[in-house]
């Protein structure tokens, strides 16, 4: 399981010309799920995301988590995080999980984030054509893969 975290001042997801979800200061998390991913991957990544100290403290040092600042989280499914680009110029998505595996893990990840954050996590819609808007703060963008825990 892979996540791409962006520290944002604001972010939103639009589907069919309507805003589905929007947040103020916090994290926009793009999540990609592959066939080999498990609930344990989901739990581990949720803990990492909520605990990641990437918000400034009173001294301007990245020392606070999204929880510490009372921030929000917006999660968007993103199968293209598993794009394979070694051969040719057309990415292959063969490692991306099929819906029957990906949807339950995506939903579990969102629930785990909500529990750890202590409030509802906003989401896009799985497999929808979404327009994602954000104001990246920093910019701060961090990639975490559950297969690289050590």
From TrEMBL:
One of the GO BP terms on file: D-amino acid catabolic process
Cross-referenced CDD domains: Dtyr_deacylase
Gene3D superfamilies: D-tyrosyl-tRNA(Tyr) deacylase
Keywords assigned by UniProt, alphabetized: Cytoplasm, Hydrolase, RNA-binding, tRNA-binding
Enzyme class: hydrolase
GO MF term (any one): D-tyrosyl-tRNA(Tyr) deacylase activity
Location(s) in or outside the cell: Cytoplasm
Pfam families, A to Z: Tyr_Deacylase
Catalytic activity field: glycyl-tRNA(Ala) + H2O = tRNA(Ala) + glycine + H(+); a D-aminoacyl-tRNA + H2O = a tRNA + a D-alpha-amino acid + H(+)
Cellular component, GO, one term: cytoplasm
Source taxon at top rank: Bacteria
Signal peptide: none
InterPro entries: Daa-tRNA_deacyls_DTD, DTD-like_sf
Short motif (Gly-cisPro motif, important for rejection of L-amino acids): ranges: 138-139
Main location: cytoplasm
Protein EC: 3.1.1.96, 3.1.1.-
Family as reported in the entry's similarity comment: Belongs to the DTD family.
Domain observations: A Gly-cisPro motif from one monomer fits into the active site of the other monomer to allow specific chiral rejection of L-amino acids.
Function summary: An aminoacyl-tRNA editing enzyme that deacylates mischarged D-aminoacyl-tRNAs. Also deacylates mischarged glycyl-tRNA(Ala), protecting cells against glycine mischarging by AlaRS. Acts via tRNA-based rather than protein-based catalysis; rejects L-amino acids rather than detecting D-amino acids in the active site. By recycling D-aminoacyl-tRNA to D-amino acids and free tRNA molecules, this enzyme counteracts the toxicity associated with the formation of D-aminoacyl-tRNA entities in vivo and helps enforce protein L-homochirality.
Quaternary assembly: Homodimer.
Protein name per Swiss-Prot or TrEMBL: D-aminoacyl-tRNA deacylase
Taxonomy of the source species: Bacteria, Pseudomonadati, Bacteroidota, Bacteroidia, Bacteroidales
């Amino acid at each position: 399981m892979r996540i791409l975290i962006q520290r944002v001042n604001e972010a939103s997801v639009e589907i069919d010309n309507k805003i589905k979800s929007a947040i103020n200061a916090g994290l926009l998390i793009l999540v990609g799920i592959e066939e080999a991913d498990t609930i344990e991957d989901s739990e581990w990544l949720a803990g990492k995301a909520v605990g990641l100290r990437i918000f400034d403290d009173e001294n301007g040092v990245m020392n606070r988590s999204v929880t510490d600042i009372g921030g929000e989280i917006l999660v968007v499914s993103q199968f293209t995080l598993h794009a394979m680009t070694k051969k040719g110029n057309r990415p292959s998505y063969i490692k991306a999980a099929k819906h029957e595996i990906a949807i339950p893990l995506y939903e579990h990840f969102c629930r785990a984030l909500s529990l750890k954050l202590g409030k509802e996590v906003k989401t896009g819609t799985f497999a929808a054509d979404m327009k994602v808007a954000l104001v990246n703060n920093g910019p701060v963008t961090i990639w975490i893969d559950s297969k690289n825990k050590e």
